[in-house]
Hints:
- The structure is a homodimer of 233-residue chains.
- Chain A is globular, with a radius of gyration of 19 Å.
- Chain A is built from nine helices and three strands.
- By secondary structure, chain A is mainly alpha-helical.
- The first copy, chain A, has a three-stranded antiparallel sheet.
- Helices cover 66% and strands 3% of the residues of chain A.
- Chains A and B meet through helix 3, helix 4 and helix 7 of A and helix 3, helix 4 and helix 7 of B.
- Chain A binds a DNA duplex (30 and 30 nucleotides) through helix 3.
Amino acid sequence: MTTTALKARKEFGKTLASDIAHRLRNEIVTCQLKPNESLKFDALRLSFGASFTTLREALTLLVAEGLVVAEEQRGYKVAPVTLEDLHDLTHARILIEVDLIRRSIERGDDDWEIRVISCLHRLAKIEERAPEDYAGNAEWKSAHRQFHEALVLASGSPTLLAVRNSLFDRAERYRNLSALYRPRPRDKAGEHRALMQAAIGRNADQACALIASHIQTTSDNVAKYASGVINAG
Amino acid sequence: MTTTALKARKEFGKTLASDIAHRLRNEIVTCQLKPNESLKFDALRLSFGASFTTLREALTLLVAEGLVVAEEQRGYKVAPVTLEDLHDLTHARILIEVDLIRRSIERGDDDWEIRVISCLHRLAKIEERAPEDYAGNAEWKSAHRQFHEALVLASGSPTLLAVRNSLFDRAERYRNLSALYRPRPRDKAGEHRALMQAAIGRNADQACALIASHIQTTSDNVAKYASGVINAG
DNA sequence: ATGAGCAATATTTTCGAAAATAGGCAAAAA
DNA sequence: TTTTTGCCTATTTTCGAAAATATTGCTCAT
Lengths: 233, 233
């Protein structure tokens, strides 16, 4: 095989380190880099074409996001997946997302409503176009992420939003993991539409209940379908 | 003046980078490094005696904790302090700390109770010894931090605990800032004792109410005494 | 005066070599 | 056989030089 990717290239971020963090994050979330896999510098240098220190900076970023764990003097590895971690993550996500969506509904203006509606529309379009398997579809994943982000974007809490985004990534890794072992994706279209309606109808209590249930159900399904590959808590 | 600190030394962490992050964090939280102050590599290299890349790794860590902000290609600076940020931070802290303390009370065992009690005892001892000005006292700060940490330690939520710790640091910076401008520290001893009693009495509702009010009142006082040095939100 | 263009300087970002550290293997001692 | 000790190798961690990028200050045309 040809030893590809000798030279680093910038795609996303402005600096090479943030760019590599972006690419690494993607590979971890999509499970191309498997849980527990050890991240050796020599190997990373080969596949990303960057030097020790640049890689080290990128890894440091991902440690803070909980996608990579560092054992000092003993290198880095992809964060493990466990049932315990999934439960912990789910609890944290519900707590934060419920708070954010409630405040978003209180504070959201017309632009916010428009954004929520158009994000849902885009999501629906993609699902129509590929009704069978949108779960593995990168475009659907992006639209899905953006819809959920739109819902909470008017909350006015940068701190919690940042935490939320990092938890979303961690959760997406579990979703991808379970998708590998599930016969067909759960149909979330109805849930998304109901969420949108509760949000723009300014029905905060209902929106909070819906999002909590949405996150919990997804998590339960992950636990059900992926329990074989997840280390017991 | 003698140009001190040419050679780096390890005090806390196992690696130099984590050690420097530790020291930098401390300098930022205690406002020896002032909000908005730009963190130039040459200057840092001089005072910490480490190389570019090691410093860069330490700064990356602090960016994730919200104590440093990075503008790509334009360096790092100490995170600004604003009223808006203080409100955001306070909201996030109350949301998370209330959840953690409730679950800690549900799950805490005998060791947890003992730990809470002994942490409070240590705190009280220090306050007795220096009744006038324990606010600037590093030992008191450490005991204070440990008491509050003990309360939530049985929650069993590593994710939220990690976020909590990072928010605690950010809040401590604001507390230190206001202490500079306040005639005498507010007496929190009674509040701490009440918290302990509610916790080991397994009165979750009361403990949650107390911690929320404790955080909110502290924040209000910071806003009151430090508003002069805090940029308007 | 004013602003655009350009050179000079300051600063950040990236690199690969060198130092430090951990883990394993083999030989010697118990 | 089992344990200990001391190399040797694999790997991480740190360094300072070099490249890339931003900023400042100057010149010149308008």
